[in-house]
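Why does residue order matter? Because the sequence determines the fold. Keep that principle in mind as you read this record.
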Amino acid sequence: MIREKVKVNVSARTAKEPALFDEQFRLAVEAAPNAMILVDSGGSIVLINSLVERLFGYAREELMGQSIEVLLPEKHRRGHIAFRASFMSDPVARPMGAGRDLYGCHKDGTEIPLEIGLNPLSTTEGMFVLASAIDLRERKLQEERLKESLREKEVLLKEIHHRVKNNLQVIASLLDIQASYSKEPGVKEVFRESRNRVHAMGMIHERLYRSRNLDRIDLGEYLRDMTSDLLDSYGTNRELITLSVIAQPVPVNLDTANCCGLIVHELVSNSLKHAFVHRGHGTITIDIQTRTENDSSPLIVVKVSDDGVGFPENIDFQQAESMGLQLTNTLIDQLQGSIELDAAHGTTFALSFRELQDKERVPAPDGFQPSEQGRHA
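Structure:
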């Protein structure tokens, strides 16, 4: 027990300032907002406040003189004795058990999750430790509720992606069926292009459905799979026309992936239809890079290149009348990005943009009015 006067120094050095009266110290401990326990160098409880009684279910007189381990679960008591001895050899104010869960034990045996702070007190009667205990049960309960809410939302998002993917597959199948009724090659080509666009959008939802991250997709992996399927849809001989995707991991959200994917789809389709018509072989390359500028979000640069005949000089791709290039320019507006053409050696389109943030998407104009003119679609 602390008798008469106690000299306190929270830095654990012998106090030189005037002594604090025992009653003043007790009143300060009692008025603390947390459960407070004063323990002597031997680990015996010498002082508690009323919040300790409320937290652990013991009456004050039941705890006075008891070992501090009485407030711990049985399985932790032996280890705590060793910890206590270690702390007393180097008594520095610090939180206890940083990075791991700590538990106390109620009188009825219930384990209580706690946050513990330790403050050494050097007095004329020896070293004491003032421990503060915060009940974490309500916080843990809120955390579990939040985790359960997140699990429910993940299940819902997976179901949404699954249904969207299935609906897009149905649309693609309907386009295939409709194309089978036409004998006109031009009509069949329009249906195939539309079907491929729908498939490109559906692939995003397929990847998100199977991913642990339900709102982000790796752009390089998506473009690699999407363009590979695109080559298959054109019946491309992979020994004659090769596709290479060079990409570092670039995770983007659904809106960004959707716009970028459709743009790349149109550009690769354009290369497959027009770049190698006179020789039947060539290479298409997709190169994805990121650049960090100041404090803004990284700039994503996607280059789509082919070593084919080159883009016609008499066509302004930004004012093109074909549906494919009109769609490309519209999607660039939605991405709030820019695109440049280099036709010096083959054709290279360089698309630059940043990941779309919430409410940044620009609505597409009402419909397209593609002309029958224009060699590039």
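Residues 137-180 form the longest helix (44 residues).
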